[in-house]
Amino acid sequence: MDYAQEYVATLHDLTDPTPEAPLAESAVVVPIAGTNPADVRAEHVFETLASVRPARVVVPLRAPEQTVYAFEQWVERFDLPVTVLWCNAESVDATLARHGLAGESGKGRDVWLGLGVAASQAKYVAVHDADATTYSESHVPRLLAPLQGEYEFVKGYYARVEDQQLYGRLTRLFVVPLLQALSDQHDTEILRYLSAFRYPLAGEFALTSEAATHIRAQRTWGLELGVLGDAHAIAGRKHSAQVDLGVHRHDHRPVEGRAGLSTMADEVGNALFRVLTDNGLDLDYEALQNTYHDAAMRLVDQYAADASFNGLSYDPEAEREQVSVYASSIEPPGVDTRLPPWNQVDLSPATVLGASHEATAGTTQVSTD
Fold first, then answer.
1. Is the whole-model pTM more than 0.85?
2. Does the domain at residues 9-360 carry the CATH identifier 3.90.550.10?
3. How far apart are CA 314 and CA 166, in angstroms?
4. Would you say 19 and 147 are in contact if contact means Cβ atoms under 8 Å apart?
């Protein structure tokens, strides 16, 4: 059984706990994106949230107009207070532009919008993805419970095993070996902090509403590592924790393609190197590609042994090919396009929510079947 602690407090699943948590003072942000009504119906997630009963659920929704209307009709079937924020509504885009916040949209911007609204409605905020098929009633309480004590930021971690295979490829084959390679060359607080989190790309985290207003956000992918960088500045080692959420199963992505892992690696790498630049590290990116490659290849051998030990299928050659693809993402960060913290903008979450409501009030009714 795993009792090991890390550089930050690590709260294990030793007894399948559902701890006491401040649900009545909490909002849960569930970002969702999809084209068709069927794409945005996270049935299991909302059924579970209805049982958990947080004070508020905020859904930053990126979808076409008719899908937004269909979602609003569908979600009413749950006994749950849900605030729908139409992130890509023209009125929302125009509102952001008027306040100097125009730019690329994606998951990061959606979550940033949701954080602002949730932090204005609750004392504590939890964020999690909507595509998990193993979502448990204990997940939100586990994320929120430590916030009642001395912790201001909590990150979830879990195992990614499905169909007798190891998943979590971007974490296993890119982020973990990259952090190992960096830590071998630089003994710094920020790298010790980032390396302590067992699943740095997990979309599940919780924080106080005060901390939420200090978070900057990458606009697309890379959000999770960017949040960790800000959490280091906001909460630090003493007030950060991670909690075990068991085994997760959710959507998988191909390696190549616009929405594939290689594109995500570019964004994740950019977010990581932006965090390190913020913390004063000057990196030799060409040399880092080589040390990353060596660290990743060692891990491939270790993953192969772990898979064999557990009777899982494993393709080491395919994993090595992914390592070679990800190595090209090791380059200096580009122009900083992060959204600023909510406490530094002349825009209120209520204004954004009003722009969303204005747009949804005019949506065209369509069948939700």
1. yes
2. yes
3. 8
4. no
